[in-house]
Amino acid sequence: MRRIFLSFFLFVILSFIIWQFLFSPVVTRLVEETVKQELNQYYRTLVRGVYSLLIEDVEALPPNQWSGYIQHRQPQFGYPLAIEPITSLDLPEHDQDLLKHGSIVVVKGGRLFYQRIRSSDQVLTMGPFLDFDVSLRIKAMIWGMLFISYGLMTLIWTMAFWMKLRRISITADAFGRGDLGARVNMSKHSALFPLANSFNNMAEQIQRLIASHKELTRAVSHELRTPISRIRFGLEMLNTSKDAEKMRKNIFEINKDVDELDTLVSELLVYARFDREKPSLDLVELPIVSWLEELTEKAGRTHPDIQLQCCLSEKFQQYKVLLDPHYMSRALNNLIQNAMKYAAHHVKIRCEEKGSDILIHVDDDGPGIPELDRERIFEPFIRLDSSRSRETGGQGLGLTIVRQIITWHDGRVFASKSPLGGARFTLCCRKTVKAGKQADDEKKTMT
Questions:
Q1: pLDDT for 140-160, tens place per residue?
Q2: What is the pTM assigned to this prediction?
């Protein structure tokens, strides 16, 4: 705290000294130049009455007695009085014209005044006025009081600031010792709230990553055990089997298990990368109909026994959606592949307009999803069926990746009951430009 106090106190005092001795005179000079006419008029008003009385008394006397009269009155004034010839004054031409016309001339910023005695070439001078000079002792007292008052205010501010910093430091130490739930509680009106909030966000992210890492480690060990066990069993069968046909079948099964391991490792790498960082999205506007039809055509080749249809009404021909084609296509393809894996005969893709969003529905006629499990299925390594077969088991990461991609797009994905009797997965995409309207505007511009 001492270092913060000294640095802040010295900064405040140094700023005050720089202002007092460097900027203050400059500002004062600028202000005086700006309001010079108003100030001069103010000074004339102050001395007009004195000038009027003195000149009236002087003019009642013969000219050769004017100087004696002024010297006689001098003790009654706290500043010099004198009568001088107008020709002895070194004044600009403008001020000389003012004197000749009987006006009071203000010089030296209101410390010296001239006025011509009527019907003569003599000028009554008042001043120069002396500035009030504060003694060194008083100046020292003033500066001492300034140092003490600024020091007290700085100390009060520093103590409050240090207590908040200390709170962040204690929380950071606790977090470093393993208390991953440690967070900084601080008012939103505090100057250190952005720092505390950044720390809390960092701690939340680290806690989530550590929990995800533990979950990933646990799940990986569990997921790898089944195919490895099958491979080991197949190898033992190869060693004991003498039948060539059984050996070929065992080799085929081992190859399928290796493919499953390869797919699992690939999905794990994708999940780990997506969970760790958000990629830079290349958002573009795509016509929704052509995009969905292209995805449907590609996905339909993987399950020729399932009837995959893209059922879109005519009005969606005019709409575009804002998305990253690579990642969003992957997310939607995961949903389509998931639906085709569990569907009995049909999978349909439909669209629905809702406000500024386009809802993309993927429906199947499979067994469906129980209502209590419709949110849980988006968690990693969650599979509702107990099967571990290569046909329907999967890795339990596809829907998790879908949700992560949709989150990057500030959208959402959810499951519900399909009109076909099975499951419905819905993606929310941002609707942007009406393609037809944009084309019409372009035609109008060209014409």
A1: 887 788 888 878 888 887 888
A2: 0.48
